[in-house]
Amino acid sequence: MGKKSDSVKTKLGVIGVGPRGRGLFQLLLTMEDVDVIAVSDLYEDRMHDATQDAKEAGKTIPATYRSYKELLAQADVEAVVVASSWTSHIEIAIAAMKAGKYVGCEVGGAASLEECWELVRTAEATGAHCMLLENCCFGREEMAILNMVRKGLFGELVHCQGAYQHDLRDEVALGIENRHYRIHNYLHRNGDVYPTHGLGLPAACLNINRGNRFISLTSLASKARGINAWAKENLGPDHLAARSNIALGDVVTTMIQCANGETILLTHDTSLPRAYSRGGRIQGTKGLWMEDGNVIHLEGASPAHAWESFDGYKEEHEHPVWQKFMQEGVQGGHGGMDYLCLRDFLSGVKTNSAPSIDVYDMASWMAITVLSEQSVRFGGTAVSFPDFTNGKWIERNEDMLAGTF
Fold first, then answer.
1. What sign does the dihedral 291-297-301-303 (CA atoms) show?
2. What is the CATH number of domain 10-135?
3. Could you say which DSSP state residue 136 is in?
């Protein structure tokens, strides 16, 4: 498949139209160059709601399938967005690539290293493309910071931090009632089950899989108390979430060592009362930025030993993608990052070119869940990180997030 004419609509399928998938589906309905012609979900009511969304938007009424395999068999579906439960993402992405589809896959943690390897080998064997739809890579602050890193304003990078810090006690505790898969992971897994939101910016800044890579990690998990306590107080002591043994520690910390000597600290913190934060920190030989507090300190520019607001720097070093986006009018979910992420994905589909966040990134980022589980299980023992590129990281030099959107 070569480059398509801009006047030809891209025909998509969406697999999984629960809360996240439906949000993406509704956003795709606003795009004039896209037709969502098929959806799949295990629940009939969710597919019905998606169909109603299409009717109200005056767009194509999609075919509906209980089985994602039936959707993949629909020949005119060119590409799929996978927004199903976490542990089904890689399985479906593999099947979609084997069916010749361009894949955009929502985030989460892998279930095994074996499936990560199969994901990579399927992409290499079929020539199909798979993009991890990590929307947080496309946020205004994140892209401004990346632009500053590329300009050398932080000097040589030494340490980065990222996190998923979000009070999800109600979502987790009510997971059975609301048919949300997150609860099942919390009941049975202990590690960083959702690593990619905080990892995207450090990985881009440090050129992971493009001249650098993760080589090892070590993780520790605190005790689990938050979900039980919240459920007992708000749902009653007899509620399942109040009585269940939650495996996932309330705060999981993971330290990653990179081949070029940098370290990355990741935090997963969703079971205690807190404000939302992705805990971003980018630190180099000339200064650092921290998301919490919206502050920056650059040697030679900032007052000695003092913080400055990041606001002025963000405007001065606005990423070109965001300059254009703001001129044309920001749209889409999560402050615009969802829209930009989907447009980057669609750019790859239209040109049949490698995506910004590719299959090697997807395998590496999602594997952190499995590796952190292993490390936690053995008291924080260092775990070696697989090289999913099989050495190609040494020679790869393309810039992540340099797409045309």
1. positive
2. 3.40.50.720
3. G
Amino acid at 168: L
Each residue's pLDDT expressed in tens, for the chain with a length of 405 residues: 455 556 689 999 999 999 999 999 999 999 999 999 999 999 999 999 999 999 999 999 999 999 999 999 999 999 999 999 999 999 999 999 999 999 999 999 999 999 999 999 999 999 999 999 999 999 999 999 999 999 999 999 999 999 999 999 999 999 999 999 999 999 999 999 999 999 999 999 999 999 999 999 999 999 999 999 999 999 999 999 999 999 999 999 999 999 999 999 999 999 999 999 999 999 999 999 999 999 999 999 999 999 999 999 999 999 999 999 999 999 998 999 999 999 999 999 999 999 999 999 999 999 999 999 999 999 999 999 999 999 999 999 888 886 556
Measure the CA–CA gap between 21 and 263, rounded to whole angstroms: 33
Element of type H or E holding 124: helix 113-126
List the chain domain ranges.
10-135, 137-320+359-394
Query: What Å distances lie between residue 313 and 102, 138, 397, CA to CA?
Result: 37, 17, 27
313-350: b (≥16 Cβ within 10 Å) or e: bbeebbbebbeebeeeeeebbeebbbbbbbbbbbebbb
Nearest to 103 by CA among 335, 329, 313, 345: 345
CA angle 128, 87, 83 (to 5 degrees): 60
Contact by Cβ (8 Å): 361, 202: no
Alpha helices (H) along 206-351 = 226-235, 240-243, 311-316, 320-328, 337-351
Q: Output the CA–CA distances (angstroms, integers) from residue 374 to 87, 216, 368, 377, in the order listed.
A: 17, 12, 10, 5
Cβ atoms within 10 A of the Cβ of 381, count?
Answer: 11
Q: Which two tokens stand for residue 371?
A: 């590796």
DSSP per-residue string spanning 230-266:
HHHHHH-TTSHHHHS---S-SEEEEEEEETTS-EEEE
Residue 286: other Cβ atoms inside 10 A = 16
Q: What is the pTM of this model?
A: 0.96
The token pair that represents 14 in the structure block: 């969406």
**Which one is the CATH code of 137-320+359-394: 3.30.360.10, 3.30.365.10, 3.40.50.1220, 1.10.10.10?**
3.30.360.10
